[in-house]
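User: Can you recover a sequence for this backbone? Please restate the input before giving your answer.

Assistant: Of course. Working from this structure:
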């Protein structure tokens, strides 16, 4: 189970931090990706972390503005979003591959077995 929190409304240039709390499966050694989906657009992977080693991955559209991190003691992944733009407006989901998954194809939604319910981010 994945539970997201931290979404909301913010003005352009502002910041938000999203949280994704994982439970019910082995947290270590899997890939967790933050996806987002705006109305009428495809789901887009924006950042990922491999929980085993902490390797991180970013889409070009968020590189330098978003930071993904994890707290292994809490089985929680965070997405710090700074310098937000109106085009960042979307529903944000975290997704996990599950046990022994990799981040080889971290932007492909079909690689992920577990999904959260989503949290809305609105930038005006």
């Amino acid at each position: 189970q994945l539970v997201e929190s931290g979404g909301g409304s913010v003005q352009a240039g502002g910041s938000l931090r999203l949280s994704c709390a994982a439970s019910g499966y082995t947290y270590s050694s899997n890939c967790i990706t933050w996806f987002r989906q705006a109305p009428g657009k495809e789901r887009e992977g924006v950042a990922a972390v491999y929980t085993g080693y902490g390797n991180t991955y970013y889409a070009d559209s968020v590189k330098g503005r978003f930071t993904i991190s994890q707290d292994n003691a809490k089985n929680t992944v965070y997405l710090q979003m700074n310098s937000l733009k109106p085009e960042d407006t979307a529903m944000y989901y975290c997704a996990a591959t599950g046990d022994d998954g990799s981040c080889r194809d971290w932007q492909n939604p079909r690689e992920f077995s577990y999904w959260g319910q989503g949290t809305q981010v609105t930038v005006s």
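That completes the design. The two ends are 31 Å apart (CA to CA).
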